[in-house]
Amino acid sequence: MAKTIMVVDDSASLRNVVCIALKGAGYDVIEAGDGREALSKLKGQKVHLIVSDVNMPNMDGITMVREIKKLDAYKFTPIMMLTTESQPEKKAEGKAAGAKAWLVKPFQPPVLLDAVSKLVLP
């Protein structure tokens, strides 16, 4: 059975690139445009990994990570930030919130898939 990955980014074109890479590697993908939409789509289904941007409208990625970690069903779901932010302070804030990895845009799909394969839940 395919693993499910949620991709959260306000850029439809970036979501598309990530989704093509993930689907090509055999993953099922759920898309969301911001943190609030992502939370509304977490309806108890199994999600093996969440890949999220940091800077988004309505609810930013780090706030979303904090909210997801409060949910019993998802508190152990790994979350990878995929963002243009590369400052150590932002990375530390993400890690403190519960993010497991930090990948800076622009990224190469093989690098993304390598990180995903290491993080995705069994």
TrEMBL record:
Q: Which UniProt keywords apply?
A: Phosphoprotein
The keyword Cytoplasm is assigned to this record: no
Q: Which residues carry this modification: 4-aspartylphosphate?
A: 53
Which InterPro entries does the record match to this protein? Bact_response_regulator (IPR050595), CheY-like_superfamily (IPR011006), Sig_transdc_resp-reg_receiver (IPR001789)
Q: Does the keyword Phosphoprotein apply?
A: yes
One Pfam family it belongs to: Response_reg
Q: What is this protein called?
A: Chemotaxis protein CheY
